[in-house]
Amino acid sequence: MVSGLAAGHHNSPMLTSWRLMKSHLQSAIVKARSSTIAGLLLCVLATPLAAQPQAVPTRVVVVSDLNESYGSTRYSAAVDDAVRRTVALAPDLVISTGDMIAGQRLSPPLDAGEVRAMWEAFDRHVTTPLAQAGLPFAVTPGNHDASSGERFALERELYRAQWLPRRPALDFVDAADYPFNYAFRVHDSLFVSLDTTHVGHLSPQYKRWLDQLLQAQGPKYRHRVVFSHVPLWPFAVGRERDYLGDPELEAILQRGKVGVVLSGHHHAYYPGYKDGVRFVSQGCLGAAPRALLGTSQRSSRTITVLELEANGNAHIEAYGGADFAQPVPRSTLPPRIAAHGVTLVRDDLAPRPVPAAAGAVTR
Predict the structure, then answer these.
(1) What is the pLDDT of residues 111-164, one digit of tens each?
(2) Sheet holding 336-339, edge to edge
(3) Do residues 272 and 347 touch, judged by C-beta distance below 8 A?
(4) What residue ranges do the domains of the chain occupy?
(5) Which fold has domain 56-362?
(6) H or E element, residue 210
(7) In the 8-state DSSP scheme, what is residue 12?
(8) What are φ and ψ of residue 348, in 5° steps?
């Protein structure tokens, strides 16, 4: 189910069906003597293919935090297994929510050769297999591969050099700051990458950019998904203070009717809900899985699968186990997690249904 916007999909069954439908409708117009009927048929023909109802959901696989210890070029077997499972799922899109390599070492700092070696290893294990399968891969920076801290300017520049020539074959809405802050569409869904490699509030500049983007582009799409590295609210033990905590950013997400916000960094899967938005923390694939707040058992390594449906529903599941085919039952996750006066409710226990336009809670 590779995106129709990806290269090599021009003769897909969906497009063939559309052409046949178009031919039949054109014949009907010729035969129709009523200008009203002909006009209605012409309106249908004028509707872009991307705006037509999707016969199947848009499938997205999310991977996160794949790195090992500082400077390592090694990737665990879990990463290889997760990539194989992702290829088998044939999604329309693969997203990484950051920390693809193991940068940000302070002493001694990593040099350019060491950073490039880590990216070469990442390509072997992740980028190349996904590309060979024809799967578009959208990334967002993490603190270990593109920290915005001044001491890591080299790593951030090498992150840019890594991804500029690997820009996926997607329909970009705003690519001026790719591969940091950017937006694209897949079918009837808008996806936005947000550069959050730090703790604390997002800069006013990027909040204005996100707000303007969502107000101008958001209403055109059935689903709106934002993905970044550091989460807006905390999820995991040991990361209680590693979050943005930005109420203004939350208001922008709500005003823009963003249904799903994907994040990494906390190394624990949790599908949370707060005030109309689903905040989904990803499990890690690399080192150091963490326990969710209020629990003591470390989370398993997981991938997350989103099914964005034409009726506005968003189905979200995490998969773990040896082959990443075993769903994580929501009953094994705490009903809520809370810290610093903020409570996230498990999405299936949300106090009221999430509006369909923003991605309804479904199981």
Answers:
(1) 999 999 999 999 999 999 999 999 999 999 999 999 999 999 999 999 999 999
(2) 171-177, 181-186, 189-193, 223-227, 260-263, 277-281, 270-274, 342-346, 336-339
(3) yes
(4) 13-50, 56-362
(5) Purple Acid Phosphatase; chain A, domain 2 (3.60.21)
(6) helix 204-217
(7) -
(8) -75, -10
